[in-house]
Amino acid sequence: MAAGAVRRYDPGRRERIVDAAIRVVARKGIAGLSHRSVAAEADVPLGSTTYHFKTLDDLLVAALRRANEGFAAQIARSPAVADPEADLATALAGLLGEVFAADRGRAELEYELYLAALRRPALRPVAAEWCEAMAGILADRTDPVTARALVAVMDGICLQVLLTDTEYDEPYTREILRRVLGAAGG
Amino acid sequence: MAAGAVRRYDPGRRERIVDAAIRVVARKGIAGLSHRSVAAEADVPLGSTTYHFKTLDDLLVAALRRANEGFAAQIARSPAVADPEADLATALAGLLGEVFAADRGRAELEYELYLAALRRPALRPVAAEWCEAMAGILADRTDPVTARALVAVMDGICLQVLLTDTEYDEPYTREILRRVLGAAGG
DNA sequence: AGGGCATGTGTACGAGCGTACACAGCGCTG
DNA sequence: CAGCGCTGTGTACGCTCGTACACATGCCCT
Predict the structure, then answer these.
(1) What is the pLDDT of residue B46?
(2) From the CA of B120, how many Å to the C1' of C8?
(3) What is the number of alpha carbons within 13 Å of residue B147 lying toward its C-beta?
(4) Cβ count near A67 (within 10 Å)
(5) Residue A150's domain is classified under what CATH number?
(6) What residue intervals traverse the membrane (chains A, B) (predicted)?
(7) Shared-domain flag, residues A42 and A75
(8) Domain that holds residue B18
(9) How many Å does it take to go from CA B8 to C1' C5?
(10) Half-sphere exposure at residue B15, Cβ-oriented, CA atoms within 13 angstroms
(11) Which chain B residue's Cα is nearest to A162?
């Protein structure tokens, strides 16, 4: 073999494989994810993906974690959620509006990874971490029970938008979030 | 071939294939669904499944419809939901409690089919029908906006139970449903 | 009564998959 | 500075998959 083409000591290799996995899932869905498709997308040999991730579940765990980080960063960038003066229902409904307006495909991707936990026990701890992290942020503005409920409501609304191919309705979302918050005195 | 083993003019064939598909999804998930696995489960030849359902999406559409009918029957069997005297939040929270207590696997199955609409456009109309049907039933007790919100909340709560492997919390669910209903004057 | 056509059957093909494994490069440790 | 071991590579095997297709069967319409 031509030794020149050999790329050795690639420190970011593992991360690049995760990035490639996310792109593959975004384009073809989890059903289209395989060691081979990821290898092609990341431009690494097949053996490299199987070396770093023994099973596809391992790869999905890494991908879900990475996707969660991306969304968490978007929340952190939203001052309205953290600002105690701002109306929480408005802030959250607006945040979801941004998500859908900016890149519906990304929302689809992140929910696909998240929902995959339904059938893949390996992903459930990661999904649970995400819920708790989200609820933790919101609990600062209300209380733990209400925070958990807000997460559930946002999940449910997003899901219906994505599953039934309808438009995201921000005023409606704001109204429902307000109801859940309202009785809590938030 | 021995003509005796040939089974011809099997009127329930199509329905039996759908039943078999549901059992396969329940046992192995959608990822384990194939023309071959369904054929084996239904005890029909491979060609029979490809004849009745050209694509797996066709089969999934039929399976989702059937699963929806099953759940709809369970709702119809619940007098508390229809009874205008009963408290709706209590009735719905109790209904979900029954579902999880009776057969968590069935809930998993039905959500897996439902959520598959995220990546399979062919399923989206069926998922949308289901949402509308559910919202339609609940709208009789409240109003269309609240009904849609109740469906979203129940979806979100069920999802978190299934995705994070936690116990279903009926009093919590009742409380949240009450908040969503409360502000609507339901 | 007979032919058309929907239904049912069996087999074969090519593609893609996870997995395994033997070998190559190279830093790190002793 | 020698060799162990982690990282990376290439190839091959056996399996399952969707699809296609040629042929069998018997109801239904004329």
Answers:
(1) 96
(2) 29
(3) 15
(4) 23
(5) 1.10.357.10
(6) none
(7) no
(8) 9-54
(9) 16
(10) 4
(11) B118
Same domain, B21 and B107: no
| Same domain for A109 and A154 | yes
Which residues of chain A between 36 and 75 are close to nucleic strand D, CB under 7 A? 44-48, 50-52
Q: For the purposes of burial, counting CB atoms within 10 Å of the CB of A149, is it exposed (0-12), middle (13-18) or buried (19 or more)?
A: buried
**Structural element, H or E, at residue A12:** none
pLDDT of residue A183: 61
Q: Rounded to whole angstroms, how far apart are CA atoms A142 and A14?
A: 39
Hey, are the CB atoms on A108 and B119 less than 8 Å from each other?
yes
The amino acid occupying position A59 is L
pLDDT tens digits in sequence order for chain A, 186 residues long: 333 345 556 668 899 999 999 999 999 999 999 999 999 999 999 999 999 999 999 999 999 999 999 888 888 888 888 888 899 999 999 999 999 999 999 999 999 999 999 999 999 999 999 999 999 999 999 999 999 999 999 999 999 999 999 999 999 999 999 999 986 544
pLDDT in tens, B154-185: 999 999 999 999 999 999 999 999 999 986 55
- Tally the domains of chain A: 2
The residues, any chain, with a CB within 8 Å of residue B103's CB and separated by 6 or more, are none
Test B156 with A160 for CB contact under 8 angstroms: no
Whether residue A70 sits in one domain with residue A49: no
Distance CA B185, CA A30 (A): 43
Q: pLDDT tens across B70-102, in order?
A: 888 888 888 888 888 999 999 999 999 999 999
With an 8 Å Cβ cutoff, the interface of chain A facing chain B consists of: 29-31, 108, 111-112, 114-115, 117-119, 121, 124, 127-128, 131, 145, 148-149, 151-157, 159-160, 162-166, 172, 175-176, 178-180, 182-184
In a domain, A2, yes or no: no
Whether residues B183 and A184 touch (CB distance < 8 A) is answered with: no
